[in-house]
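Progress against Task 2.4 (sequence-to-structure conversion) is shown through the following example record, which the project officer requested during the mid-term review.
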Amino acid sequence: MTAVTTTPHGRAPSRAVVVLLVAAAAGLVLAHRLYLGIETAPAGLVTQTVHLGQECTSAYLLVPLLLLTSVLVALRPQATRKALVALGFAALALIVSDQVRILTLVGLISWLGVDTGYFVGHTLLGSLISAAGGAAALVLFGWLIVRREKA
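Structure tokens generated for the chain above:
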């Protein structure tokens, strides 16, 4: 006779999702240089001189979203799909806004020169784009999590 272990609906898959989300967050922290290289590749198509510091990556903005999603999935396994969809759209918003920030920086440096272009592109507009993109991603994430699905 074989013993069959039953688990509450969705518990086992949701635990795996939680572990994967936490592992992805840890992976982004540990491999942030690799991620930064991938992140700056589109700007490399425009110019050959794209060198950003380690702190100029959206990886550190994605980590809290991954961890928040893992907590939501752990607390409400039945909402796993909804949480992952929200994470996907919010992550996409962060990545797109970061690409806009990087390409704006590259364009302004090319147009205004290194000193002025870097100041305007990184300090002024880059910060504004990052803040707006982060806020938009959080609002989108929250809205997707709390909205009711149509019957």
